[in-house]
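Intended use. Records like the one below are meant for learning the mapping from a protein sequence to its folded structure. Do not use them to infer anything beyond what is encoded.
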Amino acid sequence: MHDTVKTQQGLVRGRTHDGIASFKGIPYAAAPDGARRFLPPQPADAWDGAREADAFGSAPPQQPPAPGVPAVWQSGDGLDCLTVNVWTPSPGTARLPVMVWIYGGQWTYGASSMPHYDGSVLARSGVVIVTFNYRTGFEGFGHLPGTPDNRGLLDQLAALAWVQDNIAAFGGDPGNVTVFGQSAGGASAALLAAAPAAAGLFRRCIVQSLPTGHLSAPTAQQVTERLAAAVGTTPTRDGLAALPPEALLDVPDRQLTGGRPGSAFAPVIDTELVTAAPWQALADGRAARHIDLLCGFTHDEYRGFPPTADPARIDLGATATHFGLAPDAAPAYRAAYPDSTTAELFTTLMSDGLVRMPTTLTAEAHAQTGGRTWLYDFAWQGPIGAAHGIDIPFIFGLPQTRYATRFLGTPTPADFAALSHQIRTAWTSFAATGDPGWAPFDAHLLTTRIWNTAPTDTAYPLSDSRRIWSQTQPSAADQ
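Structure written out for the chain above:
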């Protein structure tokens, strides 16, 4: 069955399956190639007749994130990647809540075409789901003199503007938009919540596992210079735009970072769109007046990251120093978690430093300025624990994708369906009404939802970690 919807650029013809109409690969901006390479997103051209919207657009240029993982972008796919996808239970005038997903992937990987981001199950809860592509890696976050930083975030703003202009025709309410994302997508959502440029584009924000990871302009410039040297050109827009995207992808991160931990690419502190880390940017209170915030972390975040240390050679003191913690932090961790092995303490410390404390600080910053805030800890244990990324199959209700089986195993655990339903209900209820179903997080009660087979509400579950980190903050740059 086909459904046709009129957008501002022209008609799009989608497909309906099991009561959900989907529209895929709709341009929200022109291809960022040729004269538009490394520039902010430009308006998409209009078209005549009905455009078939039955297939995802190309992914942004990227390498596979790990050996053996299928490539979502191939050499020759080009740069025409700025497209949006919509799943709706009721095209037309229904005025349903809208949820716009921003994928993660260290600002280097990711695409809305990945099967674990299919919005059809979530849309059955009575919401309109939107996913889209934004530029990653150097195309989206490389620093170039004379061109705007954070082009990937500018793409996100353009996609949200497209939602405002067009989503009513798909049955969505442009006045009730929730942005949600995980990892780099969660950080992107929080940065947009704090950005004046995004005011009016959405009213609620769900931040899943917000990580550290922001670069100062000088550090980002060093990355550009190393990249240019590696590919034999000048560190300028003209020099790098003369090369195809695959040439820039062939240089490994470790060659670009000069030994600095973390990804080569991340949002750059540009004093305009990105003024600080999310927890610092939200502290001015501007977002508190118009943004409801739900955020949380998985209990064993670090288990979802590539190992960074030999378990037999872990140095807790050096790890604590890397995060800027006080000299007594390692003994404090041992005292706080006396039953944990050194490897378990390392996992807790890394989970705290990489994700849990940045996420907690973001919740605290919004709550302390009067913003309506909720916090959760996803504690359900899969084969590799409650690892970074395990929440995505539960949010989208998709337990059998290649991505999901890494976290859930096979066959699908018996308790998956019930917990996924509860979480999807909380997310869509928050999108619809601003209430996910548990008490808000504030500076006094610190109420936290624990997502497990039997969800519970409690005080902040890792108060010792929070106390140890209270003397410092994760760095806003060069992590």
